[in-house]
Amino acid sequence: MVFGFYTTQPIFITSFFITSKYESCGGCCEFSCMLNSRCSRDSQCQTGLYCFACPAAGSAFSASYCTRSDATPTSAFPKNTSLPFNKYAWLTTHNSFAIFGSPPRAGTPIITFFNQEDSVTQQLNNGVRGLMLDMYDFKNTVWLCHSFNGKCFDFTAFRPAIETLIEIKSFLDNNAMEIITIFIKDYVNAPFGLTKVFTSAGLMKYWFPLSNMPVGGADWPTLDTMIQTNQRLIVFTSMDKEATEGIAHQWNFTNENQFGDDGMKQGICINRGGSSVMSDTTKALIVQNFFPNNPNPIEVCVDNSDALWNELSSCYSASGNRWSNFLAVDFYKRSTGGGAFHAVDTLNGQLECGCLDITSHCSCSSSEMWEG
After folding, report:
1. Which residues lie closer than 8 Å to 299 by C-beta, 6 or more apart?
2. What is the pLDDT of residue 358?
3. What is the pLDDT of residue 362?
C-alpha cells in the first residue's frame, strides 16, 4: 500500500444538490445568508451553515456558498425519539481520528492518509453519531492508527485511544439525549485491551450491553428506552470478542457494503468482506460506506453531493428494500450544498414516514416520495 499525506491546508468546499441557481447574499448580512447563497465568510451564513467553495464541481462552484455543516437533531423529528434505534439513520465519519493537521505524537511526522479535518468533539457537536476507529496495540497500550499489515508504526500513529474516548465521554456527559455508535477496526490482541481502555475512559456507565442487543433482525429498543436507561454507547468490533470481553461482534448485528472505490460505483451495493449479503434480514442495522480508496479533500465535495444521494436507493434495493442506518463518508462537511447531512435527512425521512426528507415533517405529497 502506498501512503500519501497532504502538505497544504485543505480547501473548504461546499454542497449537496448541485443546482443551477445560487443567490448572492452580499453586503454585511451577518448570519442571514441561506443555504446555497453566495458568501465570503462563515459569519454571513445562517446557523448550521458555513462558507465553502467546491471548484471540483465546475466553474459555477469556484465561488463560495453557504453549505450545510450540521445534522438535523432527532429532537426535531416528527416522532422524536420514540422509534426503535434501527429506524433511524446516523451520519458516520470514516477514520474519524485521522484528522488533518494532527500533531505527531509518536516522535515522527505522520505519513499516512487523512480522512477528516474536524476534531472528534467538533464532529459530535455537528451531529456525527457514528465513529469509525482503528485500534492497535502500540507502546504498551491502545492507539488509534491509520496503518497496514495489522501493525501500528510511529509514522501511522495518531494518538492514544483513551484521549478520543475521553472526548466521547465528555460529549455523552453533556448531552443526555444523544446516542453514539463506535465501529472498531480491531487490531488489539492484548488480553482485555479494549475493556481496559473503555473502562479507563469512564465509558462503561454508558455501555449498551451485548445481552440487550436483538438478534434475528428484530427491532432494537427505542431511543427513549436507551436514553432512560442511560445505555447510550453502542460499540461494535471487527474481531469476535463476545465470549472474552462481551463486546459485540459487528458482523452478528450489521450488514455493510463494500468500502473504497468499489463501494462508490453507481447502481451497485455489494457486501464487504466479513459482512453477510446486504439482503440478509437477520441483521437489523445497515452500514453504507461512500468514500474512495484514497481520500481526496478536493474531489470529496463532489462525491458527497449528488453521487452520494443517488446511491442511497442502490443500497436500499440491495438490502431487501431497507434503508441504511449509518452513512459513512470522508470530510463529512464538504459538498455542494446539503451534502451528507441532506442524505441522512433523506434516510430518516424514508425510515420514519416514507418522506423524501425528515424536515418535511411527514406531510409528504406524492411528488415528495422517493423516485430514485
Report:
1. 56
2. 93
3. 56
- Burial code (b: 16+ CB inside 10 Å, e: under 16) for 35-57 equals bbbbbeebebbeebbbbbbbebb
Q: What grid cell was written down for 214?
A: 436483538
- Cell of residue 39, nine digits: 458568501
pLDDT value at residue 82: 97
Query: DSSP label at 242?
Result: H
Instruction: Report which residue type is found at 59.
Output: S
Cβ neighbours for 199, distance < 8 A, ≥ 6 positions apart = none
For 178-208, give the DSSP string. --EEEEEEEE--STTHHHHHHHHTT-GGGB-
Report yes or no: 85 and 284 within 8 Å, Cβ to Cβ: no
What is residue 25's predicted lDDT score, i.e. its pLDDT? 62
Residue 74's identity, in one-letter code, is: T
pLDDT one-digit tens code per residue, 300-328: 999 999 999 999 999 999 999 999 999 99
Q: CA-CA distance, 274 to 279, in Å (whole number)?
A: 14
Q: Which H or E run contains 91?
A: strand 90-93
* Local mean pLDDT, 10-residue blocks, the chain (372 residues): 33 35 55 91 96 95 96 95 98 98 96 98 98 98 97 98 98 98 98 98 98 98 98 98 98 98 96 97 98 97 96 97 98 97 97 88 46 41
The model's pTM: 0.91
CA 194-195-196 angle, to 5 degrees, is 90
Give the separation between CA 119 and CA 170, rounded to whole angstroms.
Answer: 13
Measure Cα distances from 76 to 79, 242, 362 in Å.
8, 36, 12
Q: Which residue has the cell 450540521?
A: 70
For residue 144, give the C-alpha cell: 488509534
List of E strands, 119-278: 130-138, 141-145, 157-160, 180-187, 233-237, 248-249, 254-256
